[in-house]
Amino acid sequence: MELKICHLFPDVLNLYGDRGNIACMRKRLEWRGHTVIVSEVSIGQKLRASDYDLFFIGGGQDFEQEVLLEDLKGEKTAEIKAAIADGKTFLAICGGYQMLGAYYKTWDGQQCDFTGALDLYTIGEKQRMIGNYMFTCEELGGQTVVGFENHSGATFLGSGVRPIGKVLSGYGNNGKDGMEGARYNNVFCTYSHGCLLPKNPVLADHILKTALSRKYGSADLAPLDDAIETAAHDYMAKRLSANA
Ligand code: GLN
């Protein structure tokens, strides 16, 4: 099987090594004998969303999110919306997550009008939400996901999307309603930066299976030896449970 991954705005949205999630997806597929092709599409480059199976968008500072607004308008927004409607898989993190919503009003009053692809919006707060955190994810059979968040934006979901999980420790979407991330069609949004997929291999495979199933009708991924990844997950889960 073959998966074509599009990394959107890789040079603008890449906090905490978010691109490592692409390396993780690539390796997990290659270890099973599958082919992965990664393409990068940034400011000024044409996005032909029908060319890809999976889209990855990392996080960025407010400034960087403002920089890409002009480019995002129009054609790119239309392509992103069409891909989502078509059931393409997205993994969007923090600033990339916010970008799939309607808007982000920063704490210092800048209005970032985004794609509106998902029914959600974000309001910046002066106090940032920072730290390691953990949430449960029902679609992973209630398994926990451990992550790291650092955002000023508080995101609120409309009725058209559901959260990806419930916060067990930390802030999640807004620090108030106990929800984390967003799910719609085959879109996965989360505030969790950096090594999200390496330390949550079950989530990594779930996202890969979502993309492969859409393309090939089904996707059996052979088990891998995840002893090190699972140990990393369990160590953080234990630490965060003790603090909860
Ligand atoms: N700039 C956004 C915020 O502060 C997103 C941050 C991020 O991607 N870490 O909410």
Describe it for me?
The protein contains 7 helices and 12 strands. The chain is α/β, with parallel strands linked by helices and about 240 residues long. It has one domain: Rossmann fold (3-Layer(aba) Sandwich). The strands form 2 sheets. It has a 6-stranded mixed β-sheet with strand order 2-1-3-4-12-11. Strand 11 (about 180-185) and strand 12 form a beta hairpin. It starts with a strand and ends with a helix. The model has no long low-confidence stretch (mean pLDDT about 95). The structure holds glutamine. The site of glutamine has 13 residues, from helix 2, helix 5 and strand 8.
Distance between the termini: 42 Å
Q: At the first level of CATH, what is the class? A: Alpha Beta
- Low-confidence stretches are none
Strand order of the largest sheet: 2-1-3-4-12-11
Mean pLDDT: 97
Strand content: 25-35%
CATH superfamily placement: Class I glutamine amidotransferase (GATase) domain
Oligomer: single chain
Largest sheet: 6 strands, mixed
